[in-house]
Design brief:
heterodimer, A: 104 residues, mainly alpha, Arc Repressor Mutant, subunit A, 5 helices, 2 strands, 8% strand, B: 169 residues, alpha/beta, Hypothetical Protein Ychn, Chain: A, five-stranded parallel sheet, 5 strands, 34% helix, globular
């Protein structure tokens, strides 16, 4: 398993760069991860990130966009605006979680 | 083996091929055949692919306000249910099979057709209705799901999806 250094922190990641240990994540790291993919985090981003972290802690898997909108209450349109092009993957990356596996 | 890279390993989100387009032609009006197009459209949109759905012939049932929430699944003519075909013709079997399938779909967290179409539109997807099918069934824009962008001819759709990858379902 590779490690990588983001903002002077060494973390474990998979081949693509997604964190493999959710415990290595904290909010300053999220800010640094977001910068890597050109995102500046606002309150709205944090709301989605916190939902994803909390839902993952409870269920052991990363929520899909569908779940984030239905259970997390963040509209699909907002997710595409906040994390353009590939919202589910970008959000998982910033939240230090694996990519979602669900189809919908 | 543990390796440490000097440059951070970051997913290649920016390698999105912004020109990639997907066109999906939905020609079936049964519950089981409505979902493949919807699931794939949703997946493509989530990957940043411009996606257009064209509803034609029986696929019109997916966007016709009168039928879209009431698509059915039948065992008849479908050997993949692995049930005796005669059973499928018994009264009430289509309703039962439909109920079961809807439940299985809901159990995996996938929405019903109207809600799924809304999710696709909210994700930036485009819905188009086929002109010939509309004329054959004497249906007009007001009869169709509000998010359908227009009733267009087959040539218009071909024109609109120039360079797209195409799925016929």
């Amino acid at each position: 398993m590779p490690t990588t250094t983001i903002s002077d922190r060494t973390v474990h990641v998979d081949d693509e760069g997604f964190l493999t240990d959710p415990a290595e994540w904290d909010e300053p790291l999220a800010t640094a991860l977001a910068e890597q993919i050109g995102l500046h985090l606002t309150e709205e981003h944090w709301e989605a990130i916190h939902f994803l972290r909390q839902d993952h802690a409870q269920r052991g898997e990363t929520a899909t966009l569908r779940r984030i909108s239905v259970v997390g209450g963040i509209p699909t349109k907002s997710l595409f605006r906040l994390f353009p092009q590939k919202p589910a993957k970008k959000l998982a990356y910033v939240a230090g979680l694996p990519k979602p596996h669900g189809c919908v | 083996m543990t390796t440490t890279e000097n440059r951070p390993i970051v997913p290649a989100f920016d390698d999105v091929d912004t020109d990639r387009k997907l066109a999906i032609i939905c020609s079936k009006g049964t519950l089981d055949m409505a979902y493949p197009g919807l699931v794939l459209a949703n997946a493509a949109l989530g990957e940043g692919v411009e996606t257009h759905l064209f509803f034609t012939f029986w696929g019109f049932d997916m966007i016709n306000k009168a039928t879209m929430a009431d698509l059915k699944f039948t065992m008849l003519g479908n050997t993949a249910t692995h049930m005796p075909q005669g059973l499928g013709g018994l009264p009430g079997m289509t309703a039962l099979a439909t109920h079961r399938m809807k439940k299985s779909i809901a159990d995996v967290g996938v929405p019903e057709v109207p809600e799924f179409l809304q999710q696709i539109v909210d994700s930036g997807g485009h819905l188009w209705a086929c002109r010939m099918s509309a004329d054959m069934q004497d249906l007009h824009e007001e009869d169709l799901y509000d998010e359908v962008e227009g009733i267009i001819s087959a040539s218009d759709f071909i024109d609109l999806t120039q360079g797209a990858q195409l799925l016929f379902i």
